[in-house]
Amino acid sequence: MINRYNPDSIAPPFSPYSQGVEVPTGARTIYVAGQVGVRPDGTVPEDMEEQTAQAFQNIQSVLREKGMDLEDLVETRTYMINKDDLPGYRAGRARVFGTGEGGPRPAVALVFVAGLAQPDWKIEICAIAAKE
């Protein structure tokens, strides 16, 4: 079983995530390439919340292809270009993960970058998932 934890000896998480995630020996691992907010038809929503939700839906599709789902996420790394889009990111993430105690709580990193590969992309999310 994947063990998610938040040690009492450090500050609590700033949003719904885990400070550490322990993966058992022998678990299958999937490394998901950076996913952006592009819909299956190739269109890109202008809204940050929509791009975020779509990027996580794309991650979910990659995982489901191999019998995993969002609850199997171990880590996500998010790259954004505009700090002003942070509320939209949080809203889109909450749509997928929820805001309460339930739901996946992977370890996370959020980094602001100068740009992404396409000018209409506001966000890119890489992920690692594991399942026994």
Structure at a glance:
With 132 residues, the chain is α+β, with helices and mostly antiparallel strands. Helix content is 22%, strand content 29%. α2 (86-97) links the parallel β4 and β5 (107-112).
What's the arrangement of secondary structure elements?
Layout: E1 3-5, E2 20-22, E3 28-36, H1 48-64, E4 73-80, H2 86-97, E5 107-112, E6 123-131
Could you list some keywords that capture this structure?
alpha+beta, 60s Ribosomal Protein L30, Chain: A, globular
Q: How many runs of DSSP E, i.e. beta strands?
A: 6
- CATH first level: which class? Alpha Beta
The CATH architecture can be given as 2-Layer Sandwich
Regarding quaternary structure, how should these chains be classified? single chain
The coarse silhouette is globular
Query: What string gives the helices and strands in order?
Result: EEEHEHEE
In which range does the helix fraction lie? 10-25%
Low-confidence segments, given as residue ranges, are none
Mean pLDDT: 92
Task: Describe, in plain words, how this protein is organized in 3D.
The model has no long low-confidence stretch (mean pLDDT 92). Strand 4, helix 2 and strand 5 form a beta-alpha-beta unit. The protein is of the alpha+beta class and 132 residues long. The longest helix is centred in the middle third of the chain and has 17 residues. Helices cover 22% and strands 29% of the residues. Helix 1 packs parallel to helix 2. The N and C termini lie close together (7 Å). The protein is globular. It has one domain: 60s Ribosomal Protein L30, Chain: A (2-Layer Sandwich). The strands form 2 sheets. It has a 4-stranded mixed β-sheet with strand order 3-6-4-5.
